[in-house]
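Q: I'm writing up a methods section and want to include an example of the input and output format. Could you take the sequence below and give the corresponding predicted structure tokens, formatted cleanly so I can copy it straight into the document?
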Amino acid sequence: MLFRFINICRRVQNIIYSYLYVFDIKSVGKNFSIEYPARIFGGEFINIGENFSSFGRLRLEAHQKHNGHIYSPAIIIGDNVSINFDCHIGCVNKVIIGNNVLIASRVFITDHFHGEISYDYLKIPPSKRTVTSKGPVVIEDNVWIGEGVAIMPNITIGKNSIVGANAVVTKSFPENSIIAGVPAKLIKTIEP
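A: Here is the clean output for your methods example:
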């Protein structure tokens, strides 16, 4: 009986929490649900479709400024997207997540780095380096991203793909791909 009451209280808390976040995000579709706690930064650059759900400790960050530099960020999330615990999506350029995407826990998606890889940049403290983007991240429809995956800048993951647990995605893959590893490699292509 006590656990049932706690679960009811948690659901009510999350309904209120989700409702309050709607005002901080540029556009949100119907059935938006985000579990406490979460951090949404740069909500005016974030568009979320219908039937979005996220478990706790989600970080959605669209940075317009960093160390005096100006960016044009956009996070665009389609319909029927579900995100599990402890996920972080960071953007200074563009991150697009298609429809019907399932994201497991501890997933990191970024379109930027803290600086270039050169000897001169290594002498600058990482927090003081200019944030740079090599290009957007595009995750197409019906993609399943496994536990602990890291998705790096300037890549596209084609529709109907599966990204295996703990993969580090550093290049693009076509539709119907099963990818895994560090760095991620094509394991198999599912033919229609």
